[in-house]
Design brief:
With 117 residues, this protein is mainly α. It folds into 2 domains: 62 residues, no CATH class; 37 residues. A two-stranded parallel sheet has the order 1-2. Helix 1 links the parallel strand 1 and strand 2.
């Protein structure tokens, strides 16, 4: 329930480089708190679902998985850049353009998980 509780946590990391940004956010972590590192997000998620440690997950995905539980927020949310890319056909296909525009509009909303109207 507190930042100090993180000292006992085992965090499934994307890489060992996560330690310094987490420390900068106020987490009192050491390398011992990151026993497993994998750049494969699916492997990390499977390890988390198996109960082998904590991991960072999008709220929508984590909340939909009954085998995991959200922990109390003791640090600010982790934000990551999001890129929306497309095939060059977006310039010539109305269908692709419509989908692209809908995605771009939805991702710009403050609550991107909200259902488009």
């Amino acid at each position: 329930d507190t930042v100090d509780d993180l000292t006992r946590a085992e965090i499934l990391a994307f890489d060992r480089g996560m330690l310094e940004p987490l420390r900068a956010m106020g987490a009192p972590l050491t390398h011992a708190n990151l026993p497993i590192a994998t750049s494969n997000h699916l492997v990390q998620w499977a390890l988390c679902r198996a109960g082998l440690g904590l991991c960072f997950m999008m709220e929508d995905v984590g909340d939909a998985e009954p085998s995991v539980a959200r922990i109390p927020a003791v640090l600010p949310p982790v934000t990551v850049p999001l890129w929306l890319t497309t095939h060059r056909e977006v310039h010539t296909s109305r269908r692709l353009r419509a989908v692209f525009d809908l995605l771009a509009e939805g991702l710009q909303r403050p609550d991107a998980s909200a259902t488009p109207r």
